[in-house]
Amino acid sequence: MDATVVAKGRLEVRGGTLKVSRGQANKSTLEVGPETQVVGRNEACDIVFDDRKVSAVHMEFVATERGVRLRDLGSRNGTFIGDTRIGEVFLTKPTLINVGESQLNFEPTQPEQVDIPEVAQFGPLVGVSQGMRSVFERCRKAAPTDLTVLILGETGCGKELVAAAIHQASSRAHKPFVVVDCGAIPPTLAESALFGHERGAFTGAVDKRVSPFVEADGGTIFLDELGELPVDVQPKLLRALAEQRIKSVGSNAYRPVNVRVIAATRRDLVREVNAGTFRSDLYFRVAQLRIELPSLRERTEDIPSLVRKMITDLGDPSAYSRITNESLERLMRHDWPGNVRELRNVIAVALAFGKDGPIDLASHVAPMSSAPSESTPTRGRTFQDAKREILARFEREYFTALYAECSSNVSEIGRRAAMERAHVRGYLRRHGIGDPKKSSEG
Q1: Confidence grade of residue 38 (pLDDT, cut at 50, 70, 90)
Q2: CA distance 284 to 42
Q3: Region 187-207: what's the mean pLDDT?
Q4: HSE on the CB side for 51, CA within 13 Å?
Q5: What are phi and psi of 356, to 5 degrees?
Q6: Rounded to whole angstroms, how far apart are CA atoms 239 and 241?
Q7: C-alpha–C-alpha distance, residues 10 and 116, integer Å
């Protein structure tokens, strides 16, 4: 939510009222506040139009300090104000909005003050920015419920950490938290990866595979990168969520499961719905509550507290006092394309190389200047050569830091990197880090 703090613990938002002025809909009016409201043809929308030219999930409205933000959600036939097709606008005065053969009349209301949560932490999550404090508040409200949660955000924003924090604050905390990376599942094995399979169910099924839904029974299952799930498996997942039961591949019997579902994606699932690559009914089933994580470049004021927390997590809390203010300021000017994950890698490398004296975190960040120089990756290099060089540098720094953090324990490095030990040894050997043959296995 766009917002400006106007008093301690308060912010001011400017909402409005939507009235259906043409077309058939499930309701004639809708108040727009700080919670996102969705308009479309799908029955789960807040305003449902009976209009074939309106997309399933057509547009959304939310009150912000700049006015009501209207955003078209990749609709097929567009959203119009007058003759202008819009993508995103802020409404501050009476406006007629045309969608398909239907029309909405927007009327602004008086600005409203809304409470801002004062707590700057939720479980392992920290942040003083208004955006993150709003995230913490949504997490706090979500935790005690069994509502499905959809976490949205760029790669590296910490979606899995948010899901784990919600689980730990719930009544299911003493039960398993099981992660399924939908983006890493081969499309042909997606059903088996989600629901398990019986021995002999298909060629190559030499052993029985237990479903992660069974492993998570009583706890929480986290479906990461849900947007990568093949279309043909989506209705089976929808049924499993709706009925709280699953059937493994090769079995004729359903098994009841008691799980809380949290999903995440870096994709814009609403646009995927309108493009026909993601089912609208599954979207609304997993998005009973949405949590949108801001990118790190949108909350650079959180960097000092994140640095302190990460240094503590890495086992050297006293190192924070050795970080220079100038270094922190340079970090806050970086655009962080890799978000919080990139920041953590920077800190891990800096600690590995900075055992004594001042620590200059910013010196381990990718060049922040856009000015061309002899070190610019494009100079005299093909795309593949430049990519190979940058990837090699990242691998070297990443595994050097892990090697130091884990005291050369290959098993622990593999656990943290989510990688087989043989692959870890390969990277260590490739970059000449330590002596992989003598590294301890744990």
Answers
A1: very high
A2: 9
A3: 76
A4: 25
A5: -135, 155
A6: 5
A7: 5
Cα-based distances in Å from 133 to 118, 129, 176, 291, 374: 7, 6, 27, 12, 42
What gap in Å lies between CA 148 and CA 237, rounded to an integer? Answer: 13
Closest of 50, 43, 39, 31 to residue 72, by C-alpha = 39
Q: What's the pTM value of the predicted model, to 2 decimals?
A: 0.73
3-class SS at 255? strand
Q: Distance between alpha carbon 81 and the CA centroid of its chain, in Å? A: 32
> What tokens were used for 382?
């093909």
- Phi then psi dihedrals of residue 94, to 5 deg: -55, 130
Neighbours of 285 (CB within 10 A): 18
* pLDDT of 334 above 90: no
Q: Regarding beta strands 245-246 and 255-256, do their DSSP bridges make them parallel or antiparallel, or are they unpaired?
A: antiparallel
138 in helix, strand or coil? helix
Rounded distance, CA 394 to CA 388, Å?
A: 10
Spatial distance between the Cα atoms of 24 and 197, rounded to a whole number of angstroms: 47
The Cα–Cα gap between 332 and 351 comes to 19
Q: Cα 194 from chain centroid?
A: 20
Order of all β-strands in the sheet with 84-86: 29-32, 16-22, 102-108, 95-99, 79-81, 84-86
Angstrom distance (rounded) from CA 56 to CA 35: 20
* CA–CA dist 247, 30 (Å, integer): 41
Please report the beta strands in 120-195, taking only residues with DSSP state E, as ranges in sequence order. 121-122, 125-126, 149-152, 177-181
Structure tokens at 53: 């030219």
Amino acid at 255: R
Whether 7 has a pLDDT exceeding 80, the answer reads no
> Using CA atoms, how far apart are residues 238 and 398, in angstroms rounded to an integer?
38
Range scoring the smallest mean pLDDT among 116-120, 327-331, 435-439: 435-439
